[in-house]
């Protein structure tokens, strides 16, 4: 793949460069191998959709801190709000002395999340903590024990969240035993459905499995909650139908089960709506949020029906650092940006541009590009070895990602089979930056596919 003249990307060295190599040596000597790293270099500066590393290489960021940066790196309004908060207080701890930004953010989320009913919100530090606490609240409110998640779903790395997560390697391998009374149901994957089976037939078959499950595993009357990603993130940007999601909600209503929407990766404009569940005409009982809520600062939220959220007694939910003042003021500005800059609409425009590129490539390389999936600015391309067997091509995916990284585009993989390229660019990315990044990614895909043809 030959280098091209770029307006934004500026690759001064190979990756990792000399300074990054020195830091890599320190990283390997002092930090466990467990925390994974997408690009083998170190950040020096971030702005909007651009990241500069310690060797002066400038990248276009299509990963966005795994979907945490819908408003981009270092958005000025958020930075200013954080600086102003630093002069007031850092962390009195909401459980010791309360502070107004916590209340203001709860009010905002109660208003903007789906549903006209009375809602309440409280805050934690991470998406996994939000999931853990949503399960606690659901069990407390219903007095039931079982929780159902979905195959290929990802809900975090703490024990309950990991138990609800589906992919064994790398998330669960060797870490058992897992939390009891957690169960998994199949989630629609229309691309990999049996040949000739329609989308409606897939949905009907999977929804019927709930009734079978209640007969052979746990009665519906003992299930506290079903937790669902409206679009599976780590699972490969797999998008269910409106019919399926509404069918799951109907199951919940039939048996008095709470519906938890995990919006950690899909929230805050990413899919073209404030929250992905809005695409399906479903109002969840509880919702978990994190990632892009605060431009990368560690804060998460659980929002839900007031009577459900009030089920735990005083002191039964919370945490020392939950809802930090810095996270709260950052989140308030992020929500302002989401509304003022119409970022949800921008997500649709980004997704259209990406889909156009990916679908054109699919027409040309239909034997290796199996599927293109997009909802708003959650865009993915799935790579296979054979169009009939749909055998996943993890090796090709890895090569494409590495090629893109070397030429200045940060992009990540996903999927149960690690054969999906996913894009989570900041929603503030300019049209020019998006086009340049897609040019580089397209060239990487072509170079690796053409290399396979020659070999």
Terminal CA distance: 16 Å
Indicate the overall shape.
globular
**Biggest sheet: strand arrangement:** 4-10-9-8-7-5-6
E-strand count: 15
The main pleated sheet reads as: 7 strands, mixed
CATH topology of the domain at 78-340: Aspartate Aminotransferase, domain 2
CATH superfamily of the domain at 78-340: Type I PLP-dependent aspartate aminotransferase-like (Major domain)
Structural class based on helices, strands and sheet pairing: alpha/beta
The CATH level-2 architecture of the domain at 78-340 is identified as 3-Layer(aba) Sandwich
Calculate the mean pLDDT score and round it: 96
CATH class of the domain at 78-340: Alpha Beta
The stretches of 5 or more residues where confidence is low (pLDDT under 50) are none
Helix content: 25-40%
Measured by DSSP, the beta-strand proportion falls in 15-25%
Could you tell me the radius of gyration in angstroms? 22 Å
- The total count of helices amounts to 13
User: How are helices and strands ordered from N to C?
Assistant: HEEEHHHEHEHEHEHEEEHHHEEHEEEH
Pathway: Amino-acid degradation; 4-aminobutanoate degradation
EC number: 2.6.1.19, 2.6.1.22
Organism: Paenibacillus sedimenti
Pfam families: Aminotran_3 (PF00202)
